[in-house]
Amino acid sequence: MRPTQGWKAASLAVASLFLTAAAGVAQQGPTLPFPNEDKLLPAPTPLVQQDKPKASDAPSDDRKSTDAPVGAGMEQYQIQLTLPDPARLFRADSERMLQERIRREARTRTREERVEFPKEPVVSTDPYQPRAFPPMTEWVEPYYVCYGRLYFEDKNAERYGWDLGFVQPLVSLAYFYYDVALLPYHMGTEPCRKFECSAGQCLPGDPVPYLIYPPQLSLTGAFLEAATIVSLFAIFPG
Asked: How far is the C-alpha of 90 from the C-alpha of 204, rounded, in Å?
């Protein structure tokens, strides 16, 4: 019994050691080879001392005349960095004056340039012919209306919309009998005028106070009214 128990204990100890070693290897992961340091960093390039240019290597006169120094092209243009004054800002030049000014500025540069502008095409050599349209007629609607003379009219009620309530029928009837009595007078007033116009009067519906419109004074109207009364008395004696 004792040898069997000792053997079992030794077997369990060996198995635990194997398990512990396997777990440690699994946690560490696979080992990668460390790259070579010579492949990571390139080899330093040795400095080469340049020789000074000799007198024979200097550019010739032809090359000096053709090659312009750096920044020489920028001197040809005058760039204004300050704000323009009102005289320059509001200067009104014609097309010909503008072209002449550009030519003068080109002559003052270090390297003179020849400024050429494209020639303007000739549109036509014929003399100017103004457009002549035939006269047109435009109908304009006037702001007033002309109509025949009204011998029976209640301006307050019919034109300006006055309403006196239950008294209005009696007032309209009184105006009607008044116009009947003065019909010869109205017809004799300015007998040559056959129309009336709304010019100078308030528009219908305007807030106008209730006014009394007396008849216009007229000698012809009074004569015709008197002649009518005399004729009625002669035809219908009392």
From this structure: 57
The reported pTM is 0.40
Q: In this structure, what are the phi and psi dihedrals at residue 81, rounded to the nearest 5 degrees?
A: -100, -10
Per-residue model confidence as pLDDT tens digits over 2-58:
445 566 666 777 677 766 665 554 455 454 444 444 444 455 555 545 555 555 555
Rounded distance between C-alpha atoms, residue 226 and residue 223, angstroms: 5
Q: Give CA angle at 44 (42, 47), nearest 5°.
A: 150
Chain center to CA of 93: 29
Phi/psi of residue 22, nearest 5 degrees: -65, -40
Angstrom distance (rounded) from CA 178 to CA 153:
10
Per-residue tokens: 52:
């000074």
If one compares 29 and 157, the residue with the highest pLDDT of the two is 157
CB atoms near residue 222 (< 10 Å): 15
Among candidate residues 163, 210, 215, the one with its CA nearest the CA of residue 188: 215
Sign of the torsion angle spanned by Cα atoms 185, 187, 188, 190: positive
User: At 209, phi and psi to the nearest 5?
Assistant: -65, 160
Q: Which residue has the tokens 């011998």?
A: 151
Q: Which residues pair with 148 in a beta bridge?
A: 195
State how far the Cα of 76 lies from the Cα of 40, in Å rounded to an integer: 52
Query: 122: helix, coil or strand?
Result: coil
Instruction: Report the C-alpha gap between 106 and 102 in whole angstroms.
Output: 6
Predicted confidence band of residue 178 (pLDDT cuts 50, 70, 90): very high
Residue 195, beta-bridge partner list: 148
DSSP state of 94: -
